[in-house]
Amino acid sequence: xxxxxxxxxxxxxxxxxxxxxxxxxxxxxxxxxxxxxxxxxxxxxxxxxxxxxxxxxxxxxxxxxxxxxxxxxxxxxxxxxxx
Length: 83
Hints:
Layout: H1 3-14, H2 23-38, H3 51-61, H4 68-81
């Protein structure tokens, strides 16, 4: 299976998890997904008291410089560990 297809399959499986992962794992998945699909986070960091948006922004920003392919591989690996 091609990497992109394997990644898309892992994304689809993420919607069918029987147990909700921890917030930390959810943020890892979010950051890896955004890095794999959009590349480096160039957005401005949210301000104020929107802690969820800040956490999501930071999870993605921490992956700056990681290639889309590496982010896909890590996402697939993390999803496999959640089965």
